[in-house]
UniProtKB/TrEMBL annotation, chain A:
Key words, A-Z: Membrane, Transmembrane, Transmembrane helix
InterPro entries: DUF6691
Protein name per Swiss-Prot or TrEMBL: YeeE/YedE family protein
Membrane-spanning parts: 40-59, 80-100, 112-133
UniProtKB/TrEMBL annotation, chain B:
Major location (coarse): membrane
Name assigned to this protein: YeeE/YedE family protein
Key words of the record: Cell inner membrane, Cell membrane, Membrane, Transmembrane, Transmembrane helix, Transport
Bilayer topology: Multi-pass membrane protein
Organism superkingdom: Bacteria
Subcellular location: Cell inner membrane
Family the UniProt entry places it in: Belongs to the TsuA/YedE (TC 9.B.102) family.
Transmembrane spans: 20-44, 56-78, 84-101, 121-138
GO cellular component entries: plasma membrane
Length: 139, 144
């Protein structure tokens, strides 16, 4: 059951990105371009998502098990550190260059745009570099 | 600032956002997991045995979404004008940055803010600010 719910959740997420316009990199860049002809649509994507998710996520935060009996795995960490801030700034620069973040990158992978394949390969390399450096750090 | 009313799509963006909210709610209520795409990708890539099949299935759902959409309607417009060298730089920065920062638009921006996590609120402010600044620099300073 948890496998089916995972697949359905991913599918709904992907359809949501498509409907919202988040899977169109040009629209994302138009949202990030405050000084140009600004398209505020994507602020509503985040607003709409948070409005729906706020009650379920806060309910889940207080539970030990999910409705299907899986262990609740919600991050507990609260400290701010340089990795969080530096990593997020680096991510934001990359997002601003191409208008693509990880969710839309996966959604667009099978839509036959060569640019997405280039982007996703580079993104996976970036993630791989992180995991290699991270494993050395903890050794 | 001038608002581009012609391309402003309040209803579809709000509706799409609501679907995203529904998806992250389903994933946390049923699977007990946070739907953060960069985190899921990172852990599936490392063949992290914990919950690997559920995480991979969530990603499979994302992957097949345009195919399912395509069975009922034409896909919405997808425009990518970025050249390949910039795409490679962007990909590397997004890949490494989201892993160091422990999340992206979905994990921090939607899930984290919904559960009022101070870390996610700070992360979201950081990546949004960096995104605005980068587009300002490339379009209005460098003129790319």
């Amino acid at each position: 059951m948890t496998k089916l719910s995972a697949l359905i959740a991913g599918l709904i997420f992907g359809l949501g990105l498509l409907l919202a316009g988040m899977a169109n990199p040009a629209k994302v860049l138009a949202f990030l371009d405050l000084a140009g002809a600004w398209d505020p649509s994507l602020a509503l994507v985040m607003g709409g998502a948070i409005a729906v998710a706020v009650i379920p996520l806060n309910w889940a935060r207080k539970k030990k098990l999910s409705l299907l009996g899986a262990r609740m795995q919600i991050p507990k960490k609260r400290e701010l550190d340089i990795r969080l801030i530096g990593g997020s700034l680096v991510f934001g620069v990359g997002w601003g260059v191409a208008g693509i973040c990880p969710g839309p990158a996966v959604v667009l992978l099978l839509t036959a745009h060569w640019q997405i394949i280039v982007f996703v390969l580079a993104m996976l390399v970036g993630m791989y570099v992180f995991s290699v450096l991270e494993s050395r750090r903890t050794c | 600032m001038s608002i581009d009313w012609v391309n402003f799509t309040p209803w579809s963006s709000l509706g799409g956002g609501a679907l995203i909210g529904l998806a992250v709610s389903l994933f946390v209520l049923a699977n007990g997991r946070i739907a953060g795409i960069s985190g899921l990708l990172g852990s599936v890539m490392q063949f992290d045995s914990e919950g690997c099949s559920e995480k991979a299935l969530f990603l499979l759902g994302l992957l097949i979404a345009p195919l399912c959409w395509g069975m009922f309607a034409a896909l919405p417009e997808i425009e990518i004008e970025t050249e390949w060298p910039a795409l490679i730089i962007a990909g590397l920065l997004v890949g490494a940055g989201t892993r160091y920062g422990s999340g992206c638009t979905s994990g921090h921006g939607v899930c984290g803010i919904s559960r009022l996590s101070p870390r996610s609120i700070v992360a979201t402010v950081c990546f949004m600010t960096a995104g605005f600044a980068t587009v300002y620099a490339t379009r209005h300073v460098l003129g790319i």
